[in-house]
Amino acid sequence: MRAVLAIDEGTTGVRAYVFDPEARVLGQAYREIDASYPAPGWVEQDPIAVWQTTLAVCRTAMSRAAVAPRDIAALGVCTQRATTTVWERKSGRPIYPAIVWQDTRTAPRAAELAQQGVFTNAMASATKLEWILELSPSIRSRAERGELCFGTMDSWLVWNLTGGAAHVTDHSNASCTTLYELFEGSWWTHVLQVLRIPERMLPELRSSSEVYGQTPPDLFGAPIAVSSIAGDQQAAMFGELGWYKGAAKITLGTSAMADVHTGTEVTLSAHGAYPLVLWSLGSERCFCLEGTTIAAGAAVQWLRDGLHVLPRIEDAAALAASVPDHGGVWAVPAFQGLGTPHMNPAARAVIGGLSRASTAAHIVKAMLEGIAFRCREVLTTLFSDSGLPRPERIRVDGGAAANDILLQCLADALGCEVERPASLQASVLGAAFLAGLAVNFWSDREELREHWRSGGIFVPRWSAEEREERFARWQQAIAAARLGGL
Predict the structure, then answer these.
(1) Given a cut of 80, is residue 483 above it in pLDDT?
(2) Is the domain of 417 the same as that of 345?
(3) Of 195, 223, 251, which closes a domain?
(4) Are residues 106 and 158 in the same domain?
(5) Phi-psi map region of 484: left, alpha, beta (phi>0 left; psi -120 to 50 alpha)
(6) Are residues 299 and 212 in the same domain?
(7) H-helix or E-strand containing 480?
(8) Could you give phi then psi for residue 157, rounded to 5 degrees?
(9) Could you tell me which of 6, 90, 125, 361 has the fewest CB atoms within 10 Å of its CB?
């Protein structure tokens, strides 16, 4: 056995990577996933299409890696979280499209439940599953008889990868559903009763790193052990080697998702951060606090698609580097509201400080600095609420982490070193690590540490006084963003 296959099934696409024993990429593949928007605020995907796309990218990645199926020691899975799928236990056919985590159709129900002491949000799975069960008496009756299965996207993929033999999830994905009791590590009986969700339709809770089953021989040409499950952000933390209490990472994608490892005890937040399970290994569960900026890479996309100041997203760093500073321009990237700690969905993006001397380069540089300052706000909240000290170095991953100017802005704003991995897709690397550990492809975490490769370290250049002065000036702009327009 000389390779591990890992899947990262995201909201907009699926990627598969094949890694060798030194965690080097032998082959990879990526395909986009379509979504439909049948009503305002609704976002759906076809579960069958997601599965078929996943299967196709796995086969392509294996072909490009030039490895035979019998050479694959294990297969790991990380996915978008809280997307809700219900399918028939006997046939495996979905009874309704997958309701994507971004879908807000159940926002009024979430607010109603809060009045009853059940604190959830429209992005979690709980109210989405309840909504599907309420479509007809027949659906609820079939669920109560055990004829239907519920799962987030990880459960759906593992079900198909094992030929319907394994209906499972791990604690990291389960903690994103509001159906999971964080303190007990089990399905939450009270919430199930309030929402009238039959527990028998829920997947079995398993470790994030163990063998759940094997692929049917005809799926890839030889059976492969399916041996890891994790949410995408949690897998990224594992892939960034954030195994210790106090470790932090930022995934710079469409949004910026920040996570701080809070140890083996649940830590709560009153400022818009979410306590989640990072992973479960054996009998031990590790937790994190997670916060989001909502817009990061999406802000740079807007510069390309909305203002047309960038021909390509990849050009942002070069254009920003063409000017010595932002020329007095500032930006708050609140295109879809402000996340942690403001939690203001009505906030809107603001660009100010413009003069006749302002150029596209100044605007791009100000937007990158604005993203960095939003990341600082999120991380400050996470460390403050957890009571943990900020580490001397924070790791980043995701597509936007390829932007050197953004990472330098981040180091300057945070006042600590920022490091990216050689492979920016830390989530798929984490899924591979978890899968390989389960079958002893890698002996232990120390061996993984030897195989991790840095893609560069960015050192802060601003003095502490300059950093705080710039941040204080930028924060004055937050008030304008909170107004959501005049």
Answers:
(1) no
(2) yes
(3) 223
(4) yes
(5) left
(6) no
(7) helix 464-482
(8) -70, -45
(9) 90
Angle, helices 232-239/426-438, rounded to nearest 10 degrees? 80
pLDDT in tens, 268-317: 999 999 999 999 999 899 999 999 998 899 899 999 999 999 999 999 99
Locate 379 and state its tokens: 């991380």
Asked whether residue 439 is assigned to any structural domain, the reply reads: no
Cis status, amide bond into 69, omega within 30 of 0: no
Give me the number of domains the chain comprises.
2
At residue 485, does pLDDT exceed 70? no
Total-model pTM? 0.94
* Residue 372 in domain: yes
Among candidate residues 442, 20, 396, the one with its CA nearest the CA of residue 239 = 396
Give the integer Cα–Cα distance in Å for 373 and 92. 46
Judge whether 440 lies within some domain: no
Domain with 257 in it = 241-421+453-486
For 254-260, what is the mean pLDDT? 94
Which residue's structure tokens are 């995201």?
Answer: 10
Tell me the two tokens of residue 144.
Answer: 């109560």
What gap in Å lies between CA 104 and CA 170, rounded to an integer? Answer: 25
Alpha helices in 439-463 (DSSP H): 445-451
**Residue 230 included in any domain:** no
β-strand 98-99 against 44-45: which pairing, if any?
antiparallel
In the block, residue with structure tokens 């008889």: 145
Percent of the chain with pLDDT over 90: 89
The one-letter amino acid code at 481 reads A
CATH of residue 477:
3.30.420.40
- Gyration radius of the chain over CA positions: 22
pLDDT digits (tens, 9 = 90+) for 203-233: 999 999 999 999 999 999 999 999 999 999 9
- Give 9-50 as a DSSP string: E-SSEEEEEEE-TTS-EEEEEEEE---B-SSTT--EE-HHHH
Place of tokens 């600082």: 376
Grouping H, G, I as helix, E, B as strand and the rest as coil, residue 115 is coil
Q: Which of 223, 258, 280 finishes a domain?
A: 223
Pairwise CA distance, residues 468 & 359, whole Å? 26
What does the pLDDT average to over 249-276? 94
**Residue 309 three-state SS:** coil
